[in-house]
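Suppose you are handed a protein chain with no further information: no name, no annotation, nothing but its sequence. What can you learn? This example shows the usual starting point.
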Amino acid sequence: MFHSRVFSYLFVLVTLVYTVSNGDAKTKKSKFVTTLLDAQWDATPLVLEVAEYLKDENVDYYWQFVDSIGGLKPPLNEIGNDKKRYDIILQHAAKLITPLQVSLLKLGLSLHVYSPKVEMFAQIAREHELPDCAALADIGGDYICDAQSLHKAIQNIKEENYVRNEVFRVDTHYPGSENRTIAVVLYGELGTPAFQTFHNILKSEAQQGSIDYIVRHFIKSERDHKLRLSGYGVELQMKSTEYKVQDDSEIKDDRSSEDASQEDDDIELEGFDFAKLKSIFPDHKQQLDKFKQHLEESSNEMAPLKVWQFQELSLQAAERIMNAPRDEALKVFTNLAQNFPMQAKALVKTVVSSELKKEMRRNQEIFGATLNLQPSDTALFINGLYYDVDVVDIFGILDVVRQELRTMEGLHNIGLGNARLSSLLSVDFSDSNNGQEFAMDIRDSAINWINDIEKDSKYSRWGTSLMDLLRPTFPGMLRQVRKNLFNLVIIIDPLNKETRTLLKLVESFVIHTAPLRVGLVLSASSSSSLTGLEDAGVAMVCAFNYVSQKKDPAAALNFITTVLGTAKGGDVTVDHIKEQLVKKYSDDPNYILGEDSDFDFGRKLSEDFIQRTGLNSLPQALMNGIPLPAHQLNVDEFEEAVLSEVMTQTPSFQKAVYKGKLQDGDDVVDYIMNQPNVMPRLNERILSKENVVYLDMTGTATTSMAIQDLLKLTPRDMTATALENLKYFMSPKKSEKYYGMTYWVVGDLYCPKSRALLIDALEYMKSAGDTRVAFLPNVDGTQDNAINKLVLAAMEFYNDKTTNTIIEFLKSDGDKSLLPKEILTKESSQELSLKMLRVYCQRVLTFAASARGIIANGRVLGPLNENEKFTVEDFSLLERFSTATYGQKLKEILDKTADEEGDISSNAIMKIVSLLVARPQSKSRFDIASETDQYSVIKLPPNQPEKVAFDIVAIVDPVSRGAQKLGPILQVLQEVLNCNIKLFLNSVEKNSDMPLKSFYRFVLDSEIQFNEDGKQVPGSIAKFNNMPQSPLLTQNMHVPDNWLVEAVRSVYDLDNIRLENVENNVHSEYELEYLLLEGHCFESTTLSPPRGLQITLGTERQPVIVDTIVMANLGYFQLKANPGAWIVRLRQGRSSEIYDITSHEGSDTPLKSTDIKVVISSLRSNIVKLKVSKKPDKLGMDLLSEDNENNGIWNSITSSFSSGDDGEEEKLNIFSLASGHLYERFLRIMMMSVLKQTKTPVKFWFLKNYLSPQIKDFLPYMAKEYGFEYELVQYKWPRWLHQQTEKQRIIWGYKILFLDVLFPLDVKKIIFVDADQVVRADLKELQQLDLGGAPYGYTPFCESRKEMDGFRFWKQGYWRNHLQGRRYHISALYVVDLKRFRRIAAGDRLRGQYQALSQDPNSLSNLDQDLPNNMIHQVAIKSLPQEWLWCETWCDDASKSSAKTIDLCNNPMTKEAKLTAAMRILPEWKGYDDEIRNLQQKIDKGELDHDPALEHLEEDVETITTQKTHDRDEHTEL
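A reasonable first move is to predict its three-dimensional structure. Written in structure tokens, the prediction is:
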């Protein structure tokens, strides 16, 4: 009945439309734009991607999945239907992970996040040149293809001759096999019989302890298509049509490859879902198509708006969204943002309610105050974690969501409800002490204070008010306040002569009245039997005390440095000390140093103090109790380290003074020492933030106690089982209903040190309260285990007296007579517990037999070193540290939610801590506050309220670039996650212009799609349906920062798309050419970037594939890579002759490897940090120095390429760039004009980023025909450099910002020539022009055409004042002395100035020429003779005859099209154009197809020459 009513309505509507449309014989065909992006590598099997996904969830899942898939009958690879194979894979994965995690897995498969990792293994296999086997095992370089011979091959390995395989961090080891000597790597494809045969054998060998078993995916079967990518955006930006920039050449579309663009789907249009309507009314498809056509024609054209109609567009869009049904609100939001130029006309009549305006304005005030967000800003919060939508990519969001879901489901499984769960997730454990390091209390009599700022007269002129801290000072200046704000304690061995320079620095702090209170702790033997006459250390202490009393502590410090200075060539002796005492003081040295000396005190105090610091080596320094890094305690770095720590701590003092927490009447030292980061003692094992390990307690406990079942458990399940079954010694609870601290003490009680550790734990438990202790026996099985068993029995029969009984029992070394009968009778029944806990300690904790350690609330501290002590004081420190880090915060939340969700168990506390504290804490969490959320907030509740739900909050202007990207992401997250979404609309109150001038699609699917036959579709594409046909559009790709993509197929000009001029739909195909490896490089001593340093990336077989140059800005470099294992090196030549790489971070270098290896295994960014240092004999040399021309870098590099010293400069190096077919047509003509005017060999350098596929195909033919070289250079705009959003401005930026890194160092001079220029002279003349020491030369703007004076902006206002009489230069032609340019760091200066100016959207209107002209006072410009550039707009007709180049400048007065101007101004232009056209016709006819130049078409670096061909290793694309 419902369907019939709907159709009745539709029939009337369609009939009406049919009648109307028949009246118009001319109908427009709806056209659309489609774009896709493929990777360079083939599609990877989904089963392998699933395996790697599961590995990152839990390595045990990986191996369970491998076994599960391996057991399939028939094998997975024999199941022909893609959909069936996909369903089977997901069914097996679903046995291991939760339904919500399966949903995320589907999204991960859609994005192919693990395909690069699978391809990485394939690259490693190719590099090893493996034999042609279905599967094989690599044993130290021996390849075994026959599975039956595996066991024998492993048995025959002789360890002394065995060379272990290189193993990377990304490799997957069989559980428990990681540290074994012999590694066996299986190369095979999961799901094939061959793989399973090898796997079963190697798994058995690993379980027997013979090998370290590793799997690397190796795909033998051919794959029929490249990997289709998603997770990127495509923009069609409306272009200005002020100047005509379209080529009039006829375009022939090859219809044969349009399959991707011809998928004319039945889309939803104006609220009608035509696909659904056709399925409901299949007999009326013709009428529905007619109705759809009418809607397309009536809705896809844009109406111009008046200026006043722009004003409320953002608010009107918000009103439209809020009026939509809740279930449709996100769709409406996304549609409005992504198609705004077409939607604007329908919004202007929307009336905005006053309630929406009022609520939005109030919320904006709150966002500004709490989140520093302004109207139009976009922000995304996932469980309180902030993400900048402009920067973050979907791959990063997926990683975060996976981590959050693991934590949330873990907490949910503990039994926490959503209220508690949400509160716990919002806790930030990353900044427990406001960023302060832990400190030690320095109010100790062991410290000999050298000065006292508050009491010493030398500081009497300083102000005593702490308010002086709030006064502004110059950067780096220390404020002189007469308070002991900064207390520096130096701990030294007074006999170590190497500390003398350090003490002299400390002495200078005192002499020069630095605002530091300095104290000294002298480490000497505390033995009371030693005197100063027998031991030099004791003598130094006695002498120091004597001089301090006789004169003052400053003199005593000077005495120590003097003694250390006199002991040349040997150790400090008692005689040296006596000699100085006699020399400076009249008293008898024997009296001062002897047995009855009054000055022999403080040695025991010093020893106790040093022990409490937990610092194992000397010297050490503490600033307000915080240890300074030991590696900075040298004469070069110490002063800077002290100053840096003072600057770090100053803001906390300022804040305390400002808030009144620290006042003039307070004791400053007491205030400092009462802060929560100050501990009674320090212990690096407890306080270190590095390598902190927590047990995974999220497993499932087994109820079976059979030994065979227990041994099969995974580590996480074994931990869960132990947690459920362990018994405890417990202190009486003081107030809580749970124990806040749980300690597991690990050890073998046969060993006295283990007994001492357990005694200290129990003694601490008795005094602390709210603590429980369990003992885990870690025995080796060969000793008497009676003590271990009796302690286990005592935990089973625990009562109030048991703790004291066991302490006495342990102190007596195991006197059984001290134990009650019920414990003794249970000794024999502890054998199973003993055995299982021993296995647990050695398999899960990876402790060696008898090793000691402590597990504190799941945190593993150990194994302890042989002589390492862990005393009652350390347990106290550990509890205080734990309370400060997380304990207090957890207690507050649990108490607050106790009434709603009830009590919690002690085991649950352990699980909560291991879940929350162990997760990465790199970002802060925000609580998003708002006044109301009724009129301007979209609220979408979770689909399953009973399950864990994400809190997703977005703040966005509905008609902003952020909204275009955010809409599709929110839609997919809502589909994939169980989430509570709040979308705050953050509109601009008044728009002065069209707020969005682009169409946008974000390519993202929640799951892989299959067709009706069960075949997997290639993947997602961006599709712009129902587009307006008259506007001129330019296409931009918005990809993650580390992706380098290029267009590989496009018939039409993607820079100038006008659909009314297009016969069919516009389709383009892009390829992910490279994944960037980015990095930062600094000199290890000066921490300054090594400018000009060349870094290469390659493999063992091909050492140099790409290279790059280090920038001075942040020491930044980028290298183009793809999935695989790569070697980073300094380039052979001057770079490697002067420098060595001394350290590196972010690499995957295997143990004992001499090379720096980097693994590219992800679509996400990979960043490495390098430190280099000069070789000892090259300290005075500079990479860019001119001092020795014969040995300079230029000759070093050039020698690789030519025999003569100036070989490279014998050719002309011409740089240009173009975007769009018209400018590429101009570019060809410019090249022709250059070649016709010179006899010098020419090499063209083109920016590859924006070239069309057509010109990249054309250039090899042209290079062969006219005998020139060319190279395509490429550079990704660095993420830290302010991004431009308009393509034209990005291209301008490439003209000027990266000249120092775009070209190899052997290119000494480069001439930039605009694409729309024609050359009439030999550019060799310009190349040889003397630039007078300037790094570059530009031609000034002509001033001879007087009628254009009104357009000469540089003659007035800012530019007139800035230039101070200098000329303003045009950027159409310039010559760069790259040698000079790099030496004066011109590129770094230009980028620095650009970064400062580009924040203002009104600055740098003409970026490529405004920037060098703005920097003319810092980076000089040589003004070229005027005849080097003539353009009709600015130069008079009389000067045209002497012009050496003619540029087709835009004319702001006539707005003449460039093609028209070219034919009118340049008589030779048509001849050049015809010559190029003839060459193209030859190519189209196939007349040149035999040309060997075609071999270079597919090369990454396209260098084609008839003069000379460089070796690939020597000359690569930068």
